[in-house]
Amino acid sequence: xxxxxxxxxxxxxxxxxxxxxxxxxxxxxxxxxxxxxxxxxxxxxxxxxxxxxxxxxxxxxxxxxxxxxxxxxxxxxxxxxxxxxxxxxxxxxxxxxxxxxxxxxxxxxxxxxxxxxxxxxxxxxxxxxx
Length: 130
Description:
The chain is mainly α. It is about 80% helix and about 0% strand. The chain is built from 4 helices and no strands. The longest helix has 30 residues, at about 25-55. It starts with a helix and ends in a 7-residue tail after the last helix.
C-alpha cells in the first residue's frame, strides 16, 4: 500500500502542473509542483521496500521478464524525477522550464508503465504483496 501514495502524487502532480502551465492557472500549477516534489521524496522508501520485496521472491523464472521491466521502469522513474528536480533548481531560463515539463511528462509515463508491470506481477503471476 505504501507504493500507491507516491504514484498518486506523481501522476496528479504531473497532470496538474502541466495543466496549470498550459492554462496559466497558478493554483493548479503550484499544487502540481507540490505533488511532484512530495511524490519524488516518497519514492525513496518505496524503492527500498520494493527492493527488499524483490530479493525475498523465490522461483522468479516464470515472471522474470515482467520483474525486470518493473524494476527498469521504477529506476527510470526515479532517475527522471531526480533529473526534473535538478533542472527546476538550476535551469531557470525558459528552455529549462520546457525541459522540466518534458522530463516530468516522461516520468509520468514511466510511473504508469511501472504500475502496469507491477499489476501484471500481482494479478497475472500471483506475486504476493504482503
